[in-house]
Automatic annotation (TrEMBL):
Subcellular location: Cytoplasm
Function: Nucleoside triphosphate pyrophosphatase that hydrolyzes dTTP and UTP. May have a dual role in cell division arrest and in preventing the incorporation of modified nucleotides into cellular nucleic acids.
GO annotations of cellular component type: cytoplasm
Species: Salsuginibacillus halophilus
Protein name per Swiss-Prot or TrEMBL: dTTP/UTP pyrophosphatase
Keyword match Hydrolase: yes
A GO molecular-function annotation: UTP diphosphatase activity
Highest classification ranks of the organism: Bacteria, Bacillati, Bacillota, Bacilli, Bacillales
GO biological process, one term: nucleotide metabolic process
Pfam families cross-referenced by the UniProt entry: Maf
Main location per the UniProt record: cytoplasm
């Protein structure tokens, strides 16, 4: 049985792991989150997750989990907005259209690193400028890729999703569960 370490300051990732019953330690990371330019967005988001994981060194029997979530539309990557103007631009771009949310995940352990990603397709309602301004005033967009949080007030922006909802929130917990099982980490198995 391995020990799980979450390399993340994201409250969402912590909550998703707790929801499924994982026992883990949290080690927030401070990695460079600039997307590499010489690779696909899928590879780039995986690379960012790997960078976060590599800020820690796994001891034998430890698995370090790190992730990165990105919103993409038409080949353009939307990370966290730097200010309200950028949040406004992002939400205006997403209004009435469909985008993808990609979360890259890295599982770093003494024998190497496993990397994978999950993609969810999200369609937004038409958003008028008053709604966008009110949503930004709620401060919810600040620390979120694409300037929205589907799990919060941002739920009213969303028309439809195809794929894993939890992936949009920041961690594809179902896929992660199946991957972690191969390291002997399974909260559904209770030891006596
Ligand atoms: C699209 C979307 C993103 N997000 C969040 C998930 C991520 O926390 C954030 C994207 O930023 P990330 O850089 O992936 O994560 P983080 O900086 O919050 O945490 P850490 O790097 O320490 O692991 O956007 C939501 O919470 N809801 C949503 O609907």
């Amino acid at each position: 049985m391995s020990q799980l370490i979450l390399a993340s300051a994201s409250p969402r990732r912590k909550e998703l792991l707790e929801q499924v019953g994982y026992e883990f330690r949290i080690e927030p990371t401070d990695a460079d989150e600039t997307l590499p330019v010489n690779m696909t967005l899928e590879d780039g988001v995986i690379e960012l997750a790997a960078r976060k994981a590599k800020t820690l060194t796994p001891q034998p029997g430890e698995v370090i989990l790190a992730a990165d979530t990105l919103v993409t539309q038409g080949g353009l990557a939307l990370g966290k907005p730097k200010n309200n103007d950028e949040a406004f631009e992002m939400l205006r771009r997403l209004s009435g259209t469909t985008h993808e949310v990609i979360t890259g995940v890295a599982l770093f352990h003494a024998d190497g690193m496993e990397r994978f990603y999950e993609k969810t397709i999200v369609s937004f309602n038409e958003l008028d400028e008053t709604l966008i301004a009110r949503y930004i005033a709620s401060k919810e967009p600040v620390d979120k890729a694409g300037a929205y949080g589907i799990q919060g007030l941002g739920a009213v922006l969303v028309k439809q999703i195809t794929g894993d909802y939890n992936n949009v929130v920041g961690l594809p917990i179902s896929l992660v569960y199946h991957k972690l099982k191969s390291y002997g980490i399974d909260p559904l198995i209770k030891e006596d």
